[in-house]
Specification:
- The protein is of the alpha/beta class and 768 residues long.
- The chain folds into 6 domains: 3-137, Rossmann fold (3-Layer(aba) Sandwich), CATH 3.40.50; 147-205 and 275-377, Rossmann fold (3-Layer(aba) Sandwich); 210-268, no CATH class; 389-424, no CATH class; 434-470 and 711-759, no CATH class; 476-541, no CATH class.
- Helix content is 39%, strand content 16%.
- The chain contains 28 helices and 23 strands.
- The structure holds iron/sulfur cluster (SF4).
- The site of iron/sulfur cluster has 13 residues, from helix 20 and helix 28.
- Residues 457-458, 460-461, 728, 730, 739-740, 743, 745-746, 749, 751 line the site of iron/sulfur cluster.
Length: 768
């Protein structure tokens, strides 16, 4: 009889989760009026011993256990039923079970009829359900299969499977009727690849868990009471966000730092399911139901894989399992063998294949063949009739063998009709499909000054650096030093500033390992930083701006079809609110030798200062008037000797602000008391003819235009990035290839002269 024949009202149907959906469909069709509840055997057992994170937390806290160990203890307590055992290990676990008793729930199983389908019940299970009426049902088939296909490599095995699938589809078999059974994840990448070559869609399960996603990583790295709000603000993938919120809510009553391990475990054990392709070849398990019009391939019919081999290495060993009424490893192996044989005999249209080796190991045929006695068919020859792309790859690989090792194989003859571009290399960037790019970006793009700068220098450089992130960021002594100076300067002009404390706090929080030489220099640089702070304080005395903001993070929403955010951090904003307006100047600290020219903004290059202007329009001030925007060179020891000034004066001079000043005297007077011969801004001076020739002046209209150009440049870069335009196009400005300057990807892009884009040759420095 079939399992359906045993279903009456108020039945509990115990089925594996893998096939639950199929079973529900079948039952709804065949017995729509019968009241059935579905449960897996694992969950049925759990109903008698249901624990949650409180019990895990208890064991972790009281016994200083790791999360995984506490889980193993709890999972196995279920099987202890007597008051004592002839085993110290079981009795110790029993004591723990008594301790957590109050944290455990037990549910009543109130069903008149229990039908178990697709499982073998151990004595333990039978004891658990002893007062119930239980029926165990298994499908037994009577189909006879005669052969199994052997292949030298996994590649040849999968090639055969795809040849057969292509033939079936050509014969009119619906793709959804074709199934791959019991495939392990070692086959996933080759199945994906072959699916692409043969143009046959195949639904491969996603192996990614929540912990591996950007949102999951952000969550765990920024655990705090506000992390969920931050995630909602920054990311758009609602499905992943909801999963993270569920985990967060589970632990809401705990101190968040106490339960970090629990959260990491949950993140690692929450899979991100990809959407199953509607029309595709599906992967199914040995539990899955198969009908007579299905075509099934069992791949990897190898020893150790099919059937899996259980060893005596579980938490309970075989002796203890006997005491508890559980299946021993030997019994499990017998049951697994029978299950696979029954399954094979129940499939009408079946192909069984195995390989002798893959990239890592050598393999044998499954031990099941001792019983099935299938005839081994070797030396399958592909017809090469189904995929031009795959045929060309096979031909290239045969040509490789011929050229490198002098080995001639028969594919050179079969496939000699292809005209390959063999050994010809084209470095041209091939556009990525828009849909794939957006999927890769997770519908979220973050832009900044440096990413836009990369894009305009060379879009392929941006692609490698900012999309593929090929260039791993590594902290160096220089980057740590830069961060140290920025950090201390962001605190230096606030009340209660304590230099030594802040200096040390920063160093204490560094992961970077300093060597002795670096420790020596970092100590020396303390005085340099103190000098910078003192000089800036002196400069403040000459300014009329009485308020300041430090390290201002500004986000600008640039979303189009997906969420796009432009983000920048302005090191310092000095300002004064007066007469219904805000006069402000923007300052960015720079290590090294920055470029100060705004002429190249029209090419999207060197836009750092204009970008600060652009960001400043987002500040929540009334009627902003820009007094100036500047870079301030810190950590730059180059002093040009001059007989009119002392060393100290030259050093102070080096710290003057460098950039553009608003030429409106009404604004300037309210900003720099010394503007006629500025003690704060480099080269700012007046003469009898107005401002000195060396003063860099700008007016309100030009500032407005600069902001407009920056906006256009960001929009242009954003649209091209989202469109997947990443051509190799380094810019050569007035004869100098600035695109490739310091680019780490020269070995990847194979840049040619024809790729270089010449710009410049225009002396007009206006921003029109
Ligand atoms: S080396 Fe030049 S051409 Fe190549 S990626 Fe870098 S910037 Fe582009």
């Amino acid at each position: 009889m079939k399992y359906l024949d045993y279903l009456t009202d108020n039945t509990l149907l115990v089925v594996p989760n893998d096939i639950k959906e199929d079973i529900i469909l079948e039952v709804t069709e065949e017995k729509p009026l019968v009241n059935i509840k579905y449960i897996s055997l694992e969950n049925l057992r759990r109903s008698f011993f249901e624990y949650d994170e409180k019990a895990i937390y208890y064991l972790m806290k009281h016994y200083n256990l790791k999360y995984e160990v506490a889980l193993i203890y709890l999972d196995n307590m279920l099987y202890l039923k007597k008051k004592s055992y002839d085993s110290e290990k079981l009795n110790n676990l029993l004591k723990l079970k008594v301790e957590v008793k109050n944290l455990i729930k037990t549910r009543k199983i109130n069903f008149d009829n229990i039908v178990v389908y697709g499982y073998d019940l151990s004595n333990f299970d039978l004891e658990l359900l002893k007062d119930k009426k239980i029926t165990m049902v298994k499908d037994k088939g009577s189909y006879i299969h005669n052969c199994v296909y052997e292949f030298k490599t996994i590649n040849e095995e999968v090639e055969f499977v795809f040849d057969k699938i292509a033939e079936l589809i050509k014969q009119g078999i619906g793709i959804n009727k074709i199934k791959l059974m019991g495939v392990t994840n070692s086959y996933y990448s080759i199945l994906k690849r072959m699916g692409y070559f043969y143009n046959i869609p195949i639904s491969i399960p996603n192996d990614i868990n929540l912990y591996q996603t950007t949102i999951g990583k952000y969550f765990i790295d920024n655990l705090s009471d506000t992390v969920i709000d931050e995630i909602k603000e920054k990311f758009t993938n609602q499905d992943i966000i909801n999963k993270v919120i569920d985990i967060y809510n589970k632990y809401i009553e705990y101190d968040i730092n106490d339960i970090k391990d629990l959260i990491i475990y949950d993140l690692k054990h929450t899979k991100i399911k990809n959407k199953e392709l509607k029309n595709s070849v599906k992967l199914i398990s040995f539990d899955s139901k198969v009908s007579d019009d299905d075509y099934v391939f069992i791949l990897g019919f190898n020893y150790g894989s099919i059937p899996v081999i259980y060893k005596d290495e579980d938490f309970f060993n075989d002796e203890e399992k006997k005491l508890l009424g559980l299946f021993t490893s030997q019994e499990l192996n017998k049951l697994e063998k029978m299950k696979i044989i029954d399954k094979i005999n129940s499939i009408k249209n079946l192909y069984i294949t195995y390989k002798l080796q893959d990239n890592k190991e050598k393999y044998l045929i499954s031990n099941l063949n001792e019983e099935l006695n299938l005839k081994i068919i070797k030396d399958y020859k592909s017809s090469f009739n189904h995929s031009d792309l795959y045929n060309q790859i096979v031909l290239s690989s045969s040509l490789d063998k011929l050229i490198k090792y002098g080995v001639k194989d028969e594919n050179l003859v079969y496939l000699n009709n292809y005209d390959l571009n063999y050994r010809k290399y084209d470095n041209k960037y091939n556009k990525i499909e828009n849909e794939d790019l957006l999927k890769y970006l997770n519908d979220n793009l973050l832009l900044s000054y440096s990413s836009i700068d990369n894009y305009y220098k060379c879009s392929f450089r941006y692609y490698l650096n900012n999309i593929l992130k090929v260039n791993k960021f590594e902290e160096t002594y220089q980057t740590v030093l830069g961060s140290l100076f920025h950090y201390v300067l962001s605190k230096a002009f606030t009340d209660d500033f304590d230099f030594e404390k802040e200096y040390q706090t920063f160093l204490d929080n560094q992961k970077y390992q300093f060597n002795n030489k670096e420790i020596f220099f970092i100590e020396k640089l303390k005085n340099e930083l103190k000098f910078i702070i003192d000089t800036i304080k002196k400069q403040y005395q000459n300014l009329n701006l009485n308020q300041a903001l430090y390290e201002q993070k500004i986000f600008i929403d640039k979303s189009t079809s997906i969420k796009v955010t432009f983000m920048g951090i302005i090191d310092k904003i000095l300002y004064k609110e007066e007469d219904n307006q805000t006069i402000l100047c923007i300052i960015d600290y720079k290590t090294g030798n920055p470029i100060l020219d705004i002429d190249n903004t029209k090419y999207g290059l060197e836009m750092q200062l204009p970008i600060y202007l652009y960001l400043s329009k987002e500040l929540k001030f009334k009627n902003i008037k820009i007094a100036g925007f500047y870079l301030q060179k810190i950590l730059n020891n180059e002093i040009n000797k001059d007989n009119n000034h002392s060393y100290l004066e030259l050093k102070e001079n080096n710290l003057k602000l460098q950039g553009y000043t608003n030429d409106d005297l009404n604004i300037l007077e309210k900003f720099d008391k010394t503007y006629e011969n500025s003690q704060v801004i480099k080269s700012l001076k007046t003469t009898s003819n107005g401002f000195s020739h060396y003063s860099k002046m700008i007016n309100d209209e030009e500032i407005g235009k600069l902001i407009e150009i920056v906006d256009e440049k960001i929009n242009f870069a954003r649209d091209n990035i989202l469109n997947g335009s990443f051509d190799i196009n380094p810019k050569r400005l007035d004869g100098e290839n600035i695109g490739c300057l310091y680019c780490p990807f020269i070995d990847i892009c194979y840049r040619q002269e024809k790729d270089i884009v010449d710009i410049g040759g225009d002396d007009n420095a206006s921003v029109d």
